[in-house]
Design brief:
- By secondary structure, the chain is an alpha/beta fold.
- It has 4 helices and 3 strands.
- Strand 1, helix 2 and strand 2 form a beta-alpha-beta unit.
- The longest helix has 14 residues.
């Protein structure tokens, strides 16, 4: 489900939280992956907010701050085929 740009991450989390509540599970238990594209340094607050909320399985592009990759297992976005191969079972 496309939720817009990186600054729309809040909407994506609200939808995920509602789904988790409806299915009586945690957000990270849902078969969802969050893919963010960001192009400005100020946008780093968005993935930091998601990490603070405990959200996992985040993909981020076009370039990643090294501390996010090393400390939080955030993945770079590659080709759609490669990303779907890793995301989907």
């Amino acid at each position: 489900m496309d939720m817009g740009q990186c600054n729309d991450a809040y909407s994506a989390i609200k939808v995920a939280a509602a789904l988790a509540e409806a299915f009586n599970c945690g957000v990270n238990d849902l078969p969802l992956t969050l893919v963010l594209s960001w192009y400005e340094q100020k946008a780093v607050c968005i993935p930091l907010t998601l990490l603070h909320l405990g959200i996992k399985n985040i993909y981020l592009s076009p370039t990643l701050p090294a501390f996010l990759v090393n400390n939080y297992n955030i993945h770079p976005i590659r080709t759609p085929k490669e990303d779907l191969k890793e995301i989907l079972p």
